[in-house]
Amino acid sequence: MNFQSTSFKLGLSVSLLAMSLGTAAQAQDKNVMLKLSSWVPAQHALNPALQAWGESLKKASGGTLSATLFPSEQLGKAFDHYDMARDGIADFSYVNPGYQPGRFPVFAATSLPFMINNAKAGSAAVDAWYRNYAAKEMKEVHYCFAFVHDPGAIHSRKKIVLPTDIKGMKVRPATATVGQVITMLGGTNVQASAPESRDMLERGVADAITFPWGSLTLFGIDKVVKYHMDVPFYVTPFVWVMNKDKYTALSATQKAAVDSHCTSEWAEKVGSAWADFEIAGHTKLAADTNREVYKLTPDQIKAWKDAVAPAERQWAEDVKKRGEDPAAVMNALRQSLAKYKSAM
After folding, report:
1. How many CB atoms lie within 10 A of CB 247?
2. N or C of the chain: less Cβ packing under 10 Å?
């Protein structure tokens, strides 16, 4: 008998056996339905990106993981989405950690003003950085990825040029960090989720809002504000997180499929889809002659940067209380932003 021929046949048999076992293992995986929760309206640009993510996950799992997206706060309020993932009300949740001041101080670094200049590479940069901290800071959930929206600005019912103009104003901040900045400048924070914000402004409960450009129109907020400071003031960072028990209960092949969809590459894909929508919104509003979209001079921008600088010191104190080194955390973030070419 030819030894090489026998070895070849044996190797082929082993390969075929491994393939058949892999197929059989996948065939034995139970079908799992995943509830994806998004609090933005059904027509928001984020939702198609999350649906595409779910469809790709289904394909990667051999069809055993099926996802249904529930937009428009169908499963719960925007403020509750982290706890909804923790408690299993949703299997995956789209979370704005800034809606819960002080709960996630490390992550709050990304919402400091004048940090990030775009949402596409910026989303990958934030995700790559936060992977070193998520398991500790968001230990109640299974972290998937982080992303940011395209830089937002201050939109108001009266023109705001200098940071001193904020004094005495009532402002709806996008995040807890932006809220600290408003307080520091002598303003008053008005807490409201994105879907509640138009009503707040319409009733005069708030005078101004920090918000991205395209979403301003989507939520109808453009109807109640006329002045728009055209400066990339901040971004709001988000996370896409999973219920821990749901992840644990998956088979090894299903976990691998989830893991392959919880990456910085996917963070950038989801962030990019939304960014294009916000950029188009900026173009639309800037062309509207019934409103004032205005730039700031270099001296005015410097005044803003100087005025908000204490916010980073406050952030550092909050991080230190959680046992982290704020200088190391911030240096790591800046290095990631530089690597992905998304730093201000």
Report:
1. 18
2. N
For residue 18, being part of any structural domain is answered with no
Whether 178 and 314 map to the same domain: the answer is yes
Q: What CATH number did the domain enclosing 311 receive? A: 3.40.190.170
Summarised one tens digit per residue, pLDDT across range 131-164 is: 999 999 999 999 999 999 999 999 999 999 999 9
Whole-angstrom distance, CA of residue 242 vs CA of residue 41: 21
Shared domain check, 330 and 230: yes
Does residue 60 lie in a domain region? yes
**pLDDT score for 290:** 94
- Positive/negative CA dihedral, 108, 120, 38, 78: positive
For residue 22, the model assigns a pLDDT of 46
pTM: 0.87
Residues 133 and 248 grouped into a single domain: yes
Helix (H, G, I), strand (E, B) or coil at 37: strand
Which residues, at least 6 apart from 248, have a Cβ–Cβ distance to it below 8 Å? none
Q: How many angstroms separate the CA atoms of 47 and 50, rounded?
A: 5
For residue 21 the two structure tokens come to 């076992």
Q: What secondary structure letter does DSSP report for 174?
A: S
Pair 190, 172: CB distance under 8 Å: yes
- Are both 222 and 242 inside the same structural domain? no
Report if residue 109 sits inside a domain.
yes
- Residue that has been written with the tokens 């169908």 in this structure: 74
DSSP secondary structure letter of residue 342: -
